[in-house]
Amino acid sequence: MFSTLRRLFEQSLKKRPLLTNYVVYASFYTAAEFTQQTVNKYYLPNKPDYNLTSGARVVMVGSTLYAPSLYYWYKFLDKKFSGTAFKTVITKVLCDQYTMTPVLLACFFITLSILEGKQDIFEELRHKYVKTFMANQGFWLPVQTINFFFLPPHLRVAYVASASFIWINVLCYIKRQQISANQKALQSK
């Protein structure tokens, strides 16, 4: 059964790569957001209910922003820097982490703030970006090194989506943290 699913998945990636990656990202973002909300429901003192609207926003950002962006980004990287030589892989990882990542993280916070109807759509970006970027480096540098060394190009977005399940839990955790009055005061100085 697993081999049949794998074969169907790989056929779909070859015939409809963008659509398949969209579905993969939507699935993993849905699972990650649901997991994060479940953890919050059972372990936070105030036991928040599931928030389907918040979940829909996160899934929308992941599937409509990340999936197509990464699909074309990895195609570009693979065309520009082909092969798996050490220097090539390191170049790809550094390009990915220091070119695409800053943009996608900023888009994550700004787009969700817009969808949430916040007045200051840059507030979370100002307060959470550096911490998020540092956590991102600790997680994604090794993940992307494995990606570019060992995986064929057609599996890159799906692999990143599966690793994103873990990362999105971290990102959603950071996103849900309240910005304290002290943080706001320090930022305004």
Per DSSP, the total helix count is: 7
Mean pLDDT: 88
Overall strand count? 0
Helix-strand pattern: HHHHHHH
What form results from the Cα inertia axes? globular
Helix and strand content put the structural class at mainly alpha
Q: What share of the residues lie within helices? A: over 70%
Largest sheet: none
In total, the number of domains comes to 1
Low-pLDDT segments: none
What is the strand content? Answer: under 5%
Rg measurement, Å? 18 Å
Query: How many angstroms does the end-to-end distance come to?
Result: 60 Å
Can you offer a commentary on this structure?
Helices cover 83% and strands 0% of the residues. The protein has 189 residues and is mostly helical. α2 runs parallel beside α6, α3 runs antiparallel to α4 (86-115) and α4 packs antiparallel against α5. The protein is globular, with a radius of gyration of 18 Å.
